[in-house]
Amino acid sequence: MVRLRRIEGGELPESDAIRMAQQGDAAAFERLYRLHNRRVYSLCLRMVGNTAEAEDLTQEAFLQLFRKIATFRGESAFSTWLHRLAVNVVLMRLRKKSAAETSLEEVTEPDEESGGPRRDFGGPDLQLTGSIDRVNLQRAVEQLPPGYKAVFVLHDVQGFEHNEIAEIMSCSIGNSKSQLHKARMRLRELLQETLRDKAREDRKAAGAAPGGEE
Q1: DSSP states of 128-179 as a string?
Q2: How many CA atoms, within 13 angstroms, populate the side-chain half-sphere of residue 10?
Q3: Topology adopted by domain 120-214
Q4: Spatial CB neighbours of 148, under 8 Å, sequence gap ≥ 6
Q5: Closest CA relative to residue 44, chosen from 146, 193, 139
Q6: How many CB atoms lie within 10 A of CB 43?
Q7: What angle do CA 61, 64, 65 make, to 5 degrees?
Q8: What is the model's pTM?
Q9: What are phi and psi of 13, to 5 degrees?
C-alpha cells in the first residue's frame, strides 16, 4: 500500500480535504483517514469482534474510499457515505465466511406480518439499558445476523439516525427501525440465555461449597 505523506502546517477542513483528495492529493486523503479511521475501525470491530480482522477491514474500507472518492457528490454527509462503504466491505466479508448467512436484502425487508398495535420501533430500549455486562453484550452482538448487527451497531453504538442508516444500508427508514427492533429483541433473548446459564452455574457452585450455602 502506498504510504501517504503528512500534511505540513495546519490541518485542512474536511470539505477541502475531500475536494483535494478527489483531485488525487495523497496528503488530503491521509487527512480524511485521520479524521475517520477510528470510527470506521470501531464499526468493523463491533461487527466482527476480532481486532486483527477489524484492522484489515478498516484498511480495505479506506482502499475502497481511495478508489471511489471521485464519485462522492455531497448528496449525503461524507461520514454517512464512508460508513456505507465500510458496512458493505464488512458484509461482503461476513457473507464470504458463511455462504448460508442471511442476505442483507432479506434482513432489511419490512416486517408487516406481525399483528397487534404498531410499536414505536427505534425508540430507546429500556430493557437493554443499564447494568449489562459489556463482555456478554458484545458476545451477544456477535451472534446477530449481519444485517441486524449492522443496524444495531450503527444506531445504538455509533449514534447514527435512522435516515442516515437508511442511506448506509440502502433501505427505508421504516426498515431500519424494524431491523433495530428485531436486533434488540434477539439480543434480549441471547442475554437471557446467558443469565440463565450463569444462574445454573452459580447454583452448582453454591451446592458444591461447604454447607451448600454462600
Answers
A1: GSSS--HHHHHHHHHTS-HHHHHHHIIIIIS---HHHHHHHHTS-HHHHHHH
A2: 4
A3: Arc Repressor Mutant, subunit A (1.10.10)
A4: 107, 179, 182, 183, 186
A5: 146
A6: 26
A7: 90
A8: 0.67
A9: -60, 150
9-101: CATH topology is Rna Polymerase Sigma Factor; Chain: A (1.10.1740)
118-130 pLDDT, tens digit each: 334 444 454 454 4
Nearest to 170 by CA among 56, 93, 76: 76
What are 14-52's pLDDT values in tens digits?
A: 999 999 999 999 999 999 999 999 999 999 998 888 899
* Dist. CA 204–CA 214, nearest whole Å: 11
C-alpha cell of 192? 437471557
Q: Which three cell numbers stand for residue 189?
A: 433473548
In the numeric block, which cell numbers belong to residue 186?
434477539
Q: Residue 79 and residue 164: Cα distance in Å, rounded?
A: 10
